[in-house]
Amino acid sequence: MSFTVLMLVIICGSVLVQHGDTETVLTTETESCMPNMCTLRKVFGAMTEKQSSMETRLKAIENQITQLKNKAVKVVFSAATGGNGHIGPVNTHTTMVYRTVITNVGNAYNRFTGIFVAPVSGIYYFTFFYIAGGANRSSLVLMKNNQAVVASIDHQTSHDEADNGGNAVFLQLQKRDQVYMRLNPNTHVFGNDRLTTFSGVLVHQL
Amino acid sequence: MSFTVLMLVIICGSVLVQHGDTETVLTTETESCMPNMCTLRKVFGAMTEKQSSMETRLKAIENQITQLKNKAVKVVFSAATGGNGHIGPVNTHTTMVYRTVITNVGNAYNRFTGIFVAPVSGIYYFTFFYIAGGANRSSLVLMKNNQAVVASIDHQTSHDEADNGGNAVFLQLQKRDQVYMRLNPNTHVFGNDRLTTFSGVLVHQL
Amino acid sequence: MSFTVLMLVIICGSVLVQHGDTETVLTTETESCMPNMCTLRKVFGAMTEKQSSMETRLKAIENQITQLKNKAVKVVFSAATGGNGHIGPVNTHTTMVYRTVITNVGNAYNRFTGIFVAPVSGIYYFTFFYIAGGANRSSLVLMKNNQAVVASIDHQTSHDEADNGGNAVFLQLQKRDQVYMRLNPNTHVFGNDRLTTFSGVLVHQL
Questions:
Q1: Where do the domains of chain A lie?
Q2: Interchain CB distance below 8 Å, A69 and B65
Q3: What is the pLDDT of residues C61-86, one digit of tens each?
Q4: Angle at B5 between CA B1 and CA B10, to 5 degrees
Q5: Could you give the angle at which helices B2-10 and A2-12 cross, rounded to 10 degrees?
Q6: Predicted pLDDT of residue C19
Q7: Distance from B161 to chain C by nearest Cα, in Å?
Q8: DSSP string, A67-121
Q9: Buried (b) or exposed (e) across B172-190, using 16+ Cβ within 10 A?
Q10: Which is more confident, B10 or A73?
Q11: Which of A164, B101, B190, C18 has the maximal Cβ count within 10 Å?
Q12: CA–CA separation, A171 vs A173, rounded Å?
């Protein structure tokens, strides 16, 4: 561009115009307001070019702002077991189904299967709480696909009608990873709409 | 554009100016660099209009950026009961007052009433923990206005001096919804500055 | 700028040009398209100045967008004690070392010392859970530097093989503040890769 402008200068015989210095053109020709329409027009061309480039940048900025505003994918759930009594003891590893949904923004938790499926890759927070009577052991495990992550257990006791437990974890998931609570064999918990819960949230999308 | 300017150099004739086609003007006025001031002025008008429209877009962008930067309303609290002993048993449903404030960004939790009032609509996270001696039952309920959401209970037992419990939930609130902990009749907990707590945070503003 | 344009009007004797009203110049001189090159050139100067100022604003906006996009510092950790058995009883206040790291985005948690060091000032969320056998008391305290924040205790009992406990808090930290779990003298917990955990996250950078 500066080479081109230099060419302009040679041809139209005006004052040297340096790159981007359109204002110089307008201040140096003081002896007459008339001449050098040519110079003016060339400088006008430079300005048009700049305006066009600013237009491009404006569009890019407008796009980025749209992305920033839409960026926060929201995935949040809380559910309780529902029912009103003992869940288990079970014979085998059993996925806990929390069928009383309190919140399920993003619809990633399935109240029929008890499984949370990560809609996007990211860091998630999960927490669970339970109550269990003393007649049996309790052993609840937070699972990521086939892998145990954190757990809470409680021993059998004839002397304590109930015990509480829970745990929490921040866990990195890939899109489509499954997280759910597993009740271990020969263990039980007690549940209703409020006491034994499972919750999770997307903390950071990655 | 450098090609266009080169054309300028070689040629200098005039021609029809189409809307927005300011560069055409500058290439086609061949016989002299002087004439068609008229055309130049009209094209100049188009450019002025464009500049004005870009000004409007710049202002809109600057406003949106301000909003994006200010967007994160922060509402976060943690409090403990304070005191140093049994709270309850109570005769009636009683709002727990957590008067030792650890954090209260946004000032939405009231340490005199024990009530959290949502300053904006959104998804919030609440959690509570308590310890209680075995001489009485415990029954703590997290309330949203008049509605029980999650709870934690513990049975009476002569054999366990203390039991712990808690729960957590992600809950969608409207502006001005009230969330608080309710201690049920004939139940108690134990509290001081650290053991029996109530916390909450705005996760997503809606 | 408006002064300069006004001066244009007086000196060159053209139609009155009001602030920003470059288009007036171009529409009022209808009888001839030739004259007042002078006016045109001065108004052109004003437009150049405006373009330059818009360029400055565009750059500022582009910087702010870069900051907004990079803004979310991520600090998230979860860890379990590891091992497979009793931890304690200890003779003195002892920092719990959670050496099985589940997540440690931002690398602020040190699995060798058990200490989380805040990389930036802000509001953080911490939570911990544990299980402990009844043969000894349990007393776990979440510490901020030398200050106890929240805690969970459990009494000794011969009648309950295990008890669970935990707590959580939202805490404002300055950059370099240290947060860790302290096991009090003569108390114990039980730990492995899943049961006794410590987690934390940066909620809001301040």
A1: 2-71, 76-205
A2: no
A3: 998 888 777 666 899 999 999 999 99
A4: 145
A5: 10
A6: 38
A7: 6
A8: HHHH-----EEEEE--SSEEE---SS-EE----EEEEEETS-B-TTT--EE-SSS
A9: bbeeebbbbbbbbeebbbb
A10: A73
A11: A164
A12: 6
For the ranges A35-44, B76-85, C112-121, C177-186, the lowest mean pLDDT is seen at A35-44
- Residue A54, class by beta-carbon neighbours within 10 Å (0-12 exposed, 13-18 middle, 19+ buried)? buried
ipTM of model: 0.76
* Phi–psi pair at A90, nearest 5 degrees: -105, 160
3-state class of C51 per DSSP?
A: helix
- What are the phi and psi torsion angles at A201 (to 5°)? -155, 145
Does the pLDDT of residue C33 top 80, yes or no?
A: no
Sequential DSSP letters for B138-196? EEEEEEETTEEEEEEEE---SS-SEEEEEEEEEEEE-TT-EEEEEEPTTB-EEE-SSSS
| Residues B204, A74: C-beta atoms closer than 8 Å | yes
- Residues of chain B contacting A41 with CB distance shorter than 8 Å: 8, 25-26, 29, 33, 40
Q: What's chain B's length in residues?
A: 206
Please, where are the H alpha helices in A137-187? none
Task: Report whether B137 contacts B98 (CB < 8 A).
Answer: no
Q: Which residues pair with C12 in a beta bridge?
A: none
Ramachandran assignment for C106, one of left (phi > 0), alpha (psi -120 to 50 degrees), beta (any other): left
Question: Burial letters for C41-74: b for 16+ Cβ neighbours within 10 Å, e otherwise?
Answer: bbbbbbbbebbeebeeebeebeebbeebeeeeee
| CATH architecture of the region A76-205 | Sandwich (2.60)
Number of CB pairs < 8 Å for A and C? 135
The larger pLDDT score, comparing residue B13 to residue B71, is at: B71
CA distance B5 to B23: 9
DSSP type of residue B111: T
Q: Which residues of B touch A47 (CB under 8 A)?
A: 47
* H helix or E strand, kind and range, residue C116: strand C115-117
Q: Is the pLDDT of residue A202 over 80?
A: yes
Dihedral sign for Cα B168, B174, B175, B177, please. negative
B17 versus C100: the higher-pLDDT residue is C100
The CA-CA-CA angle for residues C148, C152, C154, to 5°, reads: 135
Contact at CB, A127 and B123, closer than 8 angstroms: no
Q: Which of A44, A54, A170 sits opposite C103 (nearest CB)?
A: A170
N-terminal to C-terminal alpha carbon distance within chain A = 42
Q: What distance in Å separates residue C55's CA from the closest CA in chain A?
A: 7
Other Cβ atoms closer than 10 A to B112: 7
Lowest-pLDDT range of A139-148, B39-48, C27-36: C27-36
Note the residue count of chain C: 206
Does the distance separating the beta carbons of C127 and A168 come in below 8 Å? yes
Rounded-to-integer distance, Cα B156 and Cα B153, Å: 10
Q: Which chain C residue has its CA at the smallest distance from B77's CA?
A: C170
CB pair distance less than 8 Å for C164 and A163: yes
